[in-house]
Design brief:
The chain is of the alpha/beta class. 35% of the residues lie in helices and 29% in strands. It has a single domain, classed as Rossmann fold (3-Layer(aba) Sandwich), CATH 3.40.50.300. The protein has 8 helices and 10 strands.
């Protein structure tokens, strides 16, 4: 599914080159649920941007489902983002004046797809919001808004579900509900990668990759994940 080979990233700040990633080797298999953790400045956000095809490595290779995306054009990267990657963000990013079902439809509208309403309805049912289709975002709780965002991320049946601090704006109860939903989606076959700084969130993953100073510090499988998410 995901294979990074000696991925490095540096940013040019005027005449100064600022290295962020110093050689990342990482493989994530199809159907895994992985949490990527690290303190501020560890490089996890930069790595997330590369995994999500929002940025490209300065050097090294990134293979997504067998395709080397490291050197693709901006148009090809945009197509991969819209069809193969589902994004879930901390801030939900819902359109405030649009109903839940319309928010879920948006990626299909941009893609010019037909039968959008039926697909959006099924996606909302998949995340347990079949009875909230016509509700506006301000009529939904934070956890329900994040469920709408997850349904929107799933609407194009992506290869990869990438969640960036998905519980950052939620209370404890809603956070647990969202993480259990992500576990359910993973158990159904979706590959899930979570970027987080919260140990409680990382415990729901099957595997935790810890970063520090632009390098992978540790990579461990969690044997107790099923007990925590039950």
């Amino acid at each position: 599914m995901i294979e990074l080979e000696d991925v490095r990233k540096a940013y040019q700040m005027g005449k100064i080159t600022v290295p962020v990633l110093h050689g990342i080797d990482l493989t994530i298999e199809d159907g895994e649920m992985v949490a990527i953790m690290g303190p501020s400045g560890s490089g996890k956000t930069t790595l997330m941007n590369i995994l999500g095809c929002l940025d490209v490595p300065t050097s090294g290779r990134y293979l997504l489902d067998g395709t080397d995306v490291s050197r693709l054009s901006d148009n090809r990267l945009a197509k991969i983002r819209s069809s193969e990657i589902g994004f879930v963000f901390q801030s939900f990013n819902l359109v405030s004046r649009t109903s839940a079902i319309r928010n879920v439809e948006l990626p299909l509208i941009y893609a010019g797809a037909r039968a959008r309403r039926d697909s959006a309805r099924l996606a909302l049912e998949q995340v347990g919001l079949g009875d909230r289709q016509k509700h506006m975002p301000n009529e939904l709780s934070g956890g329900q808004q994040q469920r709408v965002a997850i349904a929107r991320a799933l609407i194009n049946d992506p290869t990869l579900l990438l969640a960036d601090e998905p519980t950052g704006n939620l209370d404890t109860t809603s956070s647990i509900e969202i993480m259990r939903l992500l576990c359910t989606l993973n158990d159904a076959g979706h590959t899930v990668v979570i970027i987080t700084h919260e140990e409680e969130v990382a415990r729901f993953a099957k595997r935790v990759v810890r970063m520090r100073d632009g390098l992978i510090e540790s990579d461990q499988v969690q044997r107790s994940r099923s007990q925590i998410s039950a």
